[in-house]
Amino acid sequence: MKILVCVKRVPDPETVIKLAPEGASIATDNVKWVINPFDEIAIEEALRIKEKAAGTEVVLISIGLKTAQEQLRTGLAMGADRAILVVSDATLEPLAVARVLQKLVDTEKPDVVIMGKQAIDDDSNCAGQMLAELLGWPQATFASKVELDGKSAKITREVDGGLETLGVTLPAIVTADLRLNEPRYASLPGIMKARKKELKEIPLAELGVDAAPKTRVVKLETPPKRSGGRKVGSVQELVQVLHNEAKVI
Prior knowledge:
This protein is of the alpha/beta class.
C-alpha cells in the first residue's frame, strides 16, 4: 500500500501575528514555522497504518518555498519514507493546490491520500474535497477514526448529532480531524535517518498546472482589542445594561 500525506508549512499557533505594511499579508520576520497541526495528525495516522500493514510506503507532499524542506524533514524524522516538494514562490489557492496534487497522484498512484481537514493559516477547508472531485475518488472528511480493510475503508466522523461511519472503496481521500490521534515526537534516531531519506524537488512550472489566482486579498485587519469589564451593583442593573447598552435581551 502507498499513502500520500499532504503537508503545509504554517505559522506556529503560538506566534504573535503582525500585519505587513501594505496591509494585505502578514509580516514573516521572526515567525516560527511548523507543520500544519491537522497535517501532523494525518502523518501520524499514515504511520500507524504503516506499522499495521507491512510494506506500506508513506510519501509526504508539500507545495511552497524551499524552506518547506524543514517541515518535510520533520515528517521524515517521524517515520515517513520519502518526500516531494513542489517549489512555488507564490501562495496557491485551494483549487490550484488540488490540481498540483492531482498531477502527483496520477504519477504516484497511491491507495489513500490523507490530509488535514484544513490549514490553520487560511482555514479554507476545501483542498481535499476539490482533489476528490478532480480525481473522481470517494472522500471521507473530518475523520476521527480510520479502519482500512484491503480495498475498502471505514471512516468514523463527528457530526452534530453524534458519530457517522462511512464506507468507501479505495483509492480514496481522507481528511483528518483533531481527535483522530495524538502525533508522535520525532526521535533522535529518526532525525538522523531523515537526513538520508529522499526529498525530491519539482518546480511548479514542470507540472503544467494553471496556478493563476482567481481572487486577491484586499485588506487584513487585526481584531479590535477587547475592552475591560465593569462591575454592576445589582441584578436589576445588570439586566438594564444588557437590555439598553449591550442589546442582547
